[in-house]
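Appendix B, Record 12. Input sequence as logged:
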Amino acid sequence: MNKNFALSAVLVFATGLGLAFAGVQEPALPGTPAAEVKQEDPKAREFKDILFKLVRQDEYLDEALETIDASNGRMSAHDLSAMGLSLKMISNNLRYVASRNKAEFHAVQPGSPNARYINTIFSYSRKVNRKAGRVGALVALMAAKNKKRAAMRDAVSSRKGGKKVKGKKIAQILEEQKAMDALAADARELRAASRGLNATSKWLYIAAK
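Logged structural output:
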């Protein structure tokens, strides 16, 4: 089993436990001052929360890629708009994680005890960046094919008096083209957000080395 994958799985599991038991403290042993009870580093909780959110975006990107692959480059205007909303959500979440990275940057020192979380955040950021790039490439390919089909439809439509092309009304075709253009813009925003995230995660990684 890949060691990095195993480490990531353990950290994700630990993250879930941390969220599930947030705020719960271990009781002090008899005769032990409460101040001596070992508490989790607040920064560790911060980094685990960042990691948890990042893992979720990785999963959302997997879902987006599966949907695009399954469509074979053909989506209705409704499906294109739904995909655009999904990419917008992921982009906003990636920007939020990037802002959290920036907020933690000043507190990270070389040899940080939270280096394992920071390393995994950087690893997931690179994964997310690659997947966002793949989404962008697939959407760009879909948009190019859509424009080619639109040009062919326009040629056929002009010969048929501009009514229907292969059972589709011109208004429907234009709606799909508009939705496709919007999705392409959303994919570019996603790519920009993933690059920004990757940069801030790399800063943390370097600072913690």
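DSSP finds five helices and two strands in the chain.
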